Automatic annotation (TrEMBL):
<dbReference type="InterPro" id="IPR009057">
    <property type="entry name" value="Homeodomain-like_sf"/>
</dbReference>
<feature type="domain" description="HTH rpiR-type">
    <location>
        <begin position="4"/>
        <end position="80"/>
    </location>
</feature>
<dbReference type="InterPro" id="IPR047640">
    <property type="entry name" value="RpiR-like"/>
</dbReference>
<protein>
    <submittedName>
        <fullName>RpiR family transcriptional regulator</fullName>
    </submittedName>
</protein>
<dbReference type="InterPro" id="IPR046348">
    <property type="entry name" value="SIS_dom_sf"/>
</dbReference>
<feature type="domain" description="SIS">
    <location>
        <begin position="106"/>
        <end position="240"/>
    </location>
</feature>
<dbReference type="InterPro" id="IPR036388">
    <property type="entry name" value="WH-like_DNA-bd_sf"/>
</dbReference>
<dbReference type="GO" id="GO:1901135">
    <property type="term" value="P:carbohydrate derivative metabolic process"/>
</dbReference>
<dbReference type="Pfam" id="PF01418">
    <property type="entry name" value="HTH_6"/>
</dbReference>
<dbReference type="GO" id="GO:0003700">
    <property type="term" value="F:DNA-binding transcription factor activity"/>
</dbReference>
<dbReference type="GO" id="GO:0003677">
    <property type="term" value="F:DNA binding"/>
</dbReference>
<dbReference type="InterPro" id="IPR001347">
    <property type="entry name" value="SIS_dom"/>
</dbReference>
<dbReference type="GO" id="GO:0097367">
    <property type="term" value="F:carbohydrate derivative binding"/>
</dbReference>
<dbReference type="InterPro" id="IPR000281">
    <property type="entry name" value="HTH_RpiR"/>
</dbReference>
<dbReference type="Pfam" id="PF01380">
    <property type="entry name" value="SIS"/>
</dbReference>
């Protein structure tokens, strides 16, 4: 839990803040990363205040004095670095599990059939499908997000892009089956070697494992959004 950084941003104190205290708070927030290496004298000079004001501001933040405040800031910085490193490593892992090369054929097909495109996803993937439809519209490519099997009957000359993180969702498989019966082209953004990938003519795939928490599957969409962005970027740059 952060002890200082949130207070500097929110500044919800029990009493009004003086002008000189505000100057110290502004300096602490702006130079947060370097505060552990600075002296009270330097901060007083840089903020055009006094050492007494800095000690008073430290107490305003809930500390006995500047030394205690500086130690708490050091802990906040270590916490920020630890969390940032964890998120960076997780993102790097996800990126390594996406086969970006497999996006090329999908992008070509989407461009060739850009006026006859349906998108389908369930749960969190439905939100990703809506996001992709909006991004495609920015490029002048209309895409319809379908939510029911019956909708396919009116779009038999369209291509269907199925977004499924697992590639094994039963409703997605049923929709793919019905779309094939209607002679529709099946595209997919999905998991490698899944049933959806095997049943599609073109797929952009990943190999990100299902996230488990106490026996419950959490449907991550970070990799799906990254994959959608890759497709949109290639379309925007004319990589087809």
């Amino acid at each position: 839990m952060y002890r200082v950084i949130h207070q500097l941003k929110e500044r919800n104190f029990d009493r009004p803040v003086t002008r000189s205290e505000k100057a110290v708070l502004d300096y602490l927030e702006e130079h947060f990363q370097s505060i552990p290496n600075e002296t009270v004298v330097k901060i007083a000079q840089a903020s055009y205040t006094s050492q007494a004001t800095i000690n008073r501001t430290s107490k305003l933040l809930g500390f006995d004095g500047f030394s205690e405040l500086k130690y708490a800031i050091s802990e906040d910085i270590d916490h920020i670095k630890t969390k940032s490193t964890r998120h960076i490593r997780n993102t790097e892992y996800i990126l390594s599990k996406i086969d970006f090369q497999s996006a090329n054929e999908l992008v070509k097909h989407l461009y060739r059939n850009r006026h006859h495109l349906l998108l389908f996803g369930l749960g969190a993937s439905h939100v990703s499908a809506q996001y992709m439809a909006r991004q495609l519209l920015y490029l002048g490519i209309p895409a319809i997000v379908v939510s029911e099997l019956q909708m396919l009957e009116k779009f038999k000359d369209y291509s269907l892009l199925i977004l499924s993180s697992s590639g094994e969702t039963q409703r997605c498989l049923q929709l793919m089956h019905d779309a094939k019966k209607a002679k529709m082209s099946i595209l997919a953004i999905t998991k490698k070697d899944s049933s959806i990938m095997e049943g599609s003519s073109v797929s952009f795939h990943h190999d990100v494992s299902i996230d488990k928490m106490k026996g419950i599957s959490r449907e991550q969409q970070i990799h799906m959004i990254l994959m959608i962005n890759e497709v949109i970027n290639q379309l925007n740059m004319g990589y087809f």
